[in-house]
Amino acid sequence: MKRFISGFFASLLLFFVLYSVLSIRPYRVSGDSMNPYLQREQIVVVDRISRHFYPLHRSEVVVYSDITDRSEKYKIKRLIGLPSDTIKISDGKIWVNSQELEERYLTEHVRTCLPGSCIDISPYDYSVPSDAYFVLGDNRENSIDSRWCSDPTLCDRTKVRYVPQNEIIGRVVFSF
């Protein structure tokens, strides 16, 4: 029995070591789009495997590769819209599938608008493709994210920065 227990714990330790080596990767925050949650030059630790077994959830912070932006290879944003969701930005708030999104992680006076159009209070609607995500930075005034389309009625995969599922690298598990 003692041999079984020691073998079990050795196997468990080996599993965690292999999981850490294969799955856990550090990334450095390069911009201000996630302020105040994440600061420039802060290190985030990303789990690259669990998303294949445990689905990503709204409000999680993820790292993804952005093939549309040559200045930054990787981006860190918050998941707002999941595949096939309907997003509405209206009067500084976000509605997901007709329900107002409660964003406790934002500072008190943050409003969500289209970049440069917080004066315009007309609603903007987005339909997230079935194989993509809608992402936003927490620093809504200084974030290049899924809102960046000059005319939401003309937004499509080439203009809106929906993040395809295959570009998600993983979820942020902690930062330092």
Explained architecture:
This protein is α+β, with helices and mostly antiparallel strands and 176 residues long. Helices cover 12% and strands 30% of the residues. The chain has one helix and eleven strands. The strands form two sheets. The protein has a seven-stranded antiparallel β-sheet. The protein has a four-stranded antiparallel β-sheet with strand order 7-6-5-8, with no helix packed on it. Strand 3 (61-65) and strand 4 (74-81) form a beta hairpin. The protein starts with a helix and ends with a strand.
Overall mean confidence score, pLDDT? 84
Total count of helical runs of at least 4 residues: 1
What separation lies between the terminal Cα atoms?
A: 41 Å
Strand content: 25-35%
The assigned structural class equals: alpha+beta
Observed structural traits:
single chain; 176 residues; seven-stranded antiparallel β-sheet; four-stranded antiparallel β-sheet; 1 helix; 12% helix
Give the SSE map.
Layout: H1 2-23, E1 24-28, E2 43-47, E3 61-65, E4 74-81, E5 86-90, E6 93-96, E7 99-100, E8 124-127, E9 132-136, E10 163-164, E11 168-175
Antiparallel strand pairs: 1-2, 2-11, 3-4, 3-11, 4-9, 5-6, 5-8, 6-7, 9-10
Short synopsis of the structure:
The protein has one helix at residues 2-23, and strands at residues 24-28, 43-47, 61-65, 74-81, 86-90, 93-96, 99-100, 124-127, 132-136, 163-164, 168-175. With 176 residues, the protein is an alpha+beta fold. The protein starts with a helix and ends with a strand.
